[in-house]
């Protein structure tokens, strides 16, 4: 179960340069570094809102995180205590980078009902998002293999879990 508060709502076509400007990409290899510059030019208040809670949820429209293959965009979001992004769609490369790094992404047909400050409870086992603030529940679809990977914290978590299983036998 993932619980959190919606602290950012964006429209369509938020690109990776909006998330982490290219000028910061070569300045560090430390994932935490990118948190300081998340949405630096697009939404400079993003980081302050994310400091208000340890369980932030970001809402996007169509094509969230389009534009490039930069993995730093995932780091910039995740290192700001974002536990989940809910959008209408994602480019494949951002989806794969998020899956690898354990940033839970959920696609739903319409995100217009989600509002800043809404408290959500996301059940990856039953594919539901309960909006506790509005008293509504919506269903989503997810590939079962991706579901398992997200639940294990990404590909690193999945590999770790698999190795532990092998070593236990």
TrEMBL record:
* Keywords tagged on the record: Lyase
Residues passing through the membrane, by range: none
Q: Which domain of life is it from?
A: Bacteria
Looking up InterPro entries in the UniProt record yields:
Aconitase/3IPM_dehydase_swvl (IPR015928), AconitaseA/IPMdHydase_ssu_swvl (IPR000573), LeuD (IPR050075), LeuD_type2/HacB/DmdB (IPR011827)
Picking any one GO molecular function of the record gives: hydro-lyase activity
Q: Give start and end of each Aconitase A/isopropylmalate dehydratase small subunit swivel domain.
A: 51-109
Q: Which SUPFAM superfamilies match?
A: LeuD/IlvD-like (SSF52016)
By its UniProt entry, which Pfam families does this protein fall under?
A: Aconitase_C (PF00694)
What the record says about family reads:
Belongs to the LeuD family. LeuD type 2 subfamily.
Q: Which NCBIfam families match?
A: LEUD_arch
Official protein name in the record: Aconitase A/isopropylmalate dehydratase small subunit swivel domain-containing protein
UniProt source species: Entotheonella factor
Lineage, please? Bacteria, Pseudomonadati, Nitrospinota/Tectimicrobiota group, Candidatus Tectimicrobiota, Candidatus Entotheonellia
């Amino acid at each position: 179960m993932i619980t959190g508060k919606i602290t950012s709502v964006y429209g369509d076509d938020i690109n990776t340069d909006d998330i982490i400007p290219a000028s910061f990409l070569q300045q560090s290899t430390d994932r935490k570094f990118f948190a300081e510059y998340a949405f630096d030019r697009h939404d400079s208040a993003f980081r302050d809102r994310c400091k208000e809670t340890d369980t932030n949820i970001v809402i996007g429209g169509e094509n969230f995180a389009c534009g490039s293959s930069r993995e730093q965009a995932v780091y910039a979001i995740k290192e700001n205590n974002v536990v989940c992004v809910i959008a209408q769609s994602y480019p494949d490369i951002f989806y794969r980078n998020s899956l690898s790094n354990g940033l839970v992404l959920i696609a739903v047909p319409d995100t217009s009902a989600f509002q800043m400050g809404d408290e959500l409870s996301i059940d990856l086992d039953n594919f539901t998002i309960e909006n506790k603030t509005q008293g509504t529940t919506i269903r989503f679809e997810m590939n079962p293999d991706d579901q398992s990977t997200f639940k294990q914290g990404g590909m690193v978590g999945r590999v770790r879990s698999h190795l532990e299983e092998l070593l236990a036998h």
